[in-house]
Design brief:
UCP008459; 3 helices; CASTOR_ACT_dom; 8 strands; single chain; VC0802-like; 8-stranded mixed beta sheet; A9CJY8-like_N
Length: about 130
């Protein structure tokens, strides 16, 4: 696996669940763009990843996540990035939630595991910046 540059994003995040077909508040997507927001809709649910203070009203939410972003953009032909990161974090006993976008990959880890996650990624040869 090639050496990756990973940035720890500031702030606490949440992974939230709304019912299928629920309306996502427009203001969630109208922010200044400085924070990660992701909305994924399936026939069974609508999932939202957002800053912990922006969880939509009525959503079931798991708070206390931190975001690690692989510095991109990454070519679609690259393989094994999430597999490598998840293996390295699993070996350190760190659970994760992953998210991919057009440009890059993001890994969310619980706040208490952040230091252990960063140390494991550095030990695997990756550059980890932030926090």
């Amino acid at each position: 696996m090639r050496r990756l540059a990973i940035d720890i994003q500031p702030g606490e995040y949440a992974v939230a669940r709304l019912d299928a077909g629920a309306t996502v508040p427009a203001e969630l997507l109208q922010a200044d763009g400085s924070e990660l927001v992701s909305v994924t809709r399936t026939p069974a649910e609508t999932s939202v990843i957002c800053p912990a203070g922006s969880v939509p009203e009525g959503a079931e939410a798991e708070r206390g996540w931190r975001v690690l972003t692989v510095r991109g953009p990454l070519a679609f032909t690259l393989t094994g990035i999430i597999a490598a990161l998840s293996s390295e974090l699993a070996a350190a006993g760190v659970a994760l939630f992953s998210l991919s976008t057009f440009d890059t990959d993001h890994v969310l880890v619980k706040e208490p595991d952040l230091d252990r996650a960063a140390a494991a990624l550095r030990a695997a040869g990756h550059e980890v910046a932030g926090d």
